[in-house]
Amino acid sequence: MSDLRDRPQPHPRARRLALAAAALAAVTLAACSRPADTDGEARASRIQPVAKISLKVQKVAPGSRTGEQVYQGTCAGCHGAGALGSPKTGDAAAWGPRIAQGFDTLTKHAIEGIRQMPPRGGGADLTDTEVRRAVAYLANSGGAKFAEPPVTK
Ligand code: HEC
């Protein structure tokens, strides 16, 4: 019955050493298994796509947007669906009588606004030439053959 008490106990110093070694191992493990989150390179590659997109947007300086870019950014909101009675993009029947007015009249109306259509389609920072490009793009979708003023670099 004295087997528990009689069992040889490890020397106290050996116990302390074992404890210290275990603690050291735990710290080392914790350091190695840190999530990849703190890896600067991995983080950089994850935010890269966002940075690339904003760069792409910045590259198109005001004044040098193509008709399609202006259309997508400003005009599609109404003309894409024919909202407010606007001639719908690609609808030749709706655009025919409008196109018959000629490019200059269409452009004048697009710049100054006409009835429910706000001046420049609400794109206050659009240059006259950019509106002309968008008018050409939009009217051409409905059957016109207007030459879109080129973007000069
Ligand atoms: C807020 C809605 C709206 C936006 C945005 C808009 N339009 Fe319009 N647009 C209209 C409406 C409505 C008409 C029809 C006006 C009418 O004849 O009563 C119209 C008509 C036109 C016409 C025909 C004008 C004519 O003389 O028959 C052109 C060209 C045109 N828009 C170009 C554009 C361009 C280019 C943009 C983008 C820069 C644009 N629109 C953005 C609503 C819009």
From TrEMBL:
Coiled-coil ranges from the UniProt annotation: none
PANTHER family per the UniProt record, alphabetical: CYTOCHROME C5, PTHR40942
Domain of life: Bacteria
Record key words, sorted: Electron transport, Heme, Iron, Metal-binding, Transport
Protein name: C-type cytochrome
InterPro entries per record: Cyt_c-like_dom (IPR009056), Cyt_c-like_dom_sf (IPR036909), Cyt_CIE (IPR002323), TAT_signal (IPR006311)
Taxonomic placement: Bacteria, Pseudomonadati, Pseudomonadota, Betaproteobacteria, Rhodocyclales
Domain Cytochrome c: from-to ranges: 62-142
